[in-house]
Specification:
The complex is a heterodimer of chains A (about 110) and B (about 110).
Chain A (H helix, E strand, L loop, with lengths): L3 E4 L2 E5 L4 E7 L6 E7 L6 E7 L4 E4 L2 E6 L4 E6 L8 E7 L9 E2 L3 E6 L1
Parallel strand pairs in A: 2-11
Antiparallel strand pairs in A: 1-3, 3-8, 4-5, 4-9, 6-7, 7-8, 9-10, 9-11
Chain B lengths: L3 E4 L2 E4 L5 E7 L6 E6 L6 E6 L6 E2 L10 E5 L2 E6 L8 E8 L5 E3 L3 E5 L1
Parallel strand pairs in B: 2-11
Antiparallel strand pairs in B: 1-3, 3-8, 4-5, 4-9, 5-6, 7-8, 9-10, 9-11
Classes of the chains: A mainly beta (about 110), B mainly beta (about 110).
């Protein structure tokens, strides 16, 4: 089955700096890669996703890059703000049919004002 | 995105008892899932709730311990049976959207004493 590794487990950045979270996956059949943000005591929220026919996707201060050859994908947050502090999960899934999503172990991001 | 509600939001239960968690969606969805999130951990898929047929369980989860019902396309229940303190966790339902994205319910925080 799919195995998703995520690094780092914790990340502290100064407000205004950039943050990068990296994930690798094992199953070459995976072609859908969502990222979730989970604030303390809240549900995971989908913040951005990328599919294997796209190498990069951007949404305001958030971007995700995908390297299918190397089987890794990354989340980039620019101009970080205190409200970006949360746990971020990457995930991988094959599209089409039974869509089991395998989650990474999570990265706790702290943005220091 | 779908609006998902869960009941109860939290509960404290005695060991040996059972708790049924309800998940309600405001629109018909094909795929519904149940996850467990232990404190400080990632999301682990328990099972896929199939409408009109038995749920599909992931490795390590069995029907006798986590019976699931899915009577229609907007509702599902997860029962945690014969509970022990190790079952203390957050249980989340999720649904799949039109292009494979998943949306999560608010979760049920279960404490077993």
């Amino acid at each position: 089955g799919e195995n998703v590794e995520q690094h780092p487990s914790t990340l502290s950045v100064q407000e205004g700096d950039s943050a990068v979270i990296k994930c690798t996956y094992s199953d070459s059949a995976s072609n859908y890669f969502p990222w979730y943000k989970q604030e303390l005591g809240k549900r995971p929220q989908l913040i951005i996703d990328i599919r294997s026919n796209v190498g990069e996707k951007k949404d305001q201060r958030i971007a995700v890059t995908l390297n299918k050859t190397a089987k890794h994908f990354s989340l980039h947050i620019t101009e970080t703000q205190p409200e970006d502090s949360a746990v971020y999960f990457c995930a991988a899934s094959p599209a089409g049919g039974y869509q089991k999503v395998t989650f990474g172990t999570g990265t706790k991001l702290q943005v220091i004002p | 995105s779908a609006v998902i509600s869960q009941k109860p939001s939290r509960d404290i239960c005695q060991r040996g008892t059972s708790l049924t968690i309800q998940c309600q969606v405001d629109s018909q969805v094909t795929m519904m899932f149940w996850y467990r999130q232990q404190p400080g951990q990632s999301l682990t898929l328990i099972a896929t709730a199939n409408q009109g047929s038995e749920a599909t369980y992931e490795s390590g989860f069995v029907i006798d311990k986590f019976p699931i019902s899915r009577p229609n396309l907007t509702f599902s229940t997860l029962t945690v049976s014969n509970m022990s303190p190790e079952d203390s966790s957050i249980y989340l339902c999720s649904v799949m959207g039109q292009v494979y994205e998943q949306y999560f319910g608010p979760g049920t925080r279960l404490t077993v004493t």
